[in-house]
Amino acid sequence: MINRLWHITAVIAALVGFSTLAQANTMEAPSGAPILTITGDIGTTNMDDSLVLDREMLAAIDATTLQTSTIWTEGVQQFEGVSLHALVAFLNVESGTIRATAINDYTVEIPVTDAVEGGPIIAYLMDGQTMSIRDKGPLWVIYPYDSSSDYRSEVTYARSIWQLDRLEFVQ
Question: What is the mean pLDDT of residues 9-36?
């Protein structure tokens, strides 16, 4: 009877441990140069309470492309990056605001409701090339401006932050 009780206790303890691990959702630390640090109310971390990603880790979440013109470039460009929709799902975020900050500490707020399928991406390539800091890189939030007049507004343009290097998810 004691052995059986001990076995049941061990099984319950193991299940509780696995449940806690599943909720924590940790990733490996980046092996390449960090390109994006994500903090706040997120479900996946790899360094303390943050998620630090290199370009390969970011691309592994959901590499996607979109073609659009912008008010900052000539003609239609092809952007490759991770969709904001996939990133929000990956982080287990359902609501709130994304505080996006550039290398120079310029910050914009993007509602999580903008993270829809076919919506904005965090671009790391433009026309197949990495973007230097001088050319709005390393990351640039790009909306599919040509797909809907709703994306061609001052509000959306203001959310199209370039030289992005930090995201904070707040409720």
Answer: 60
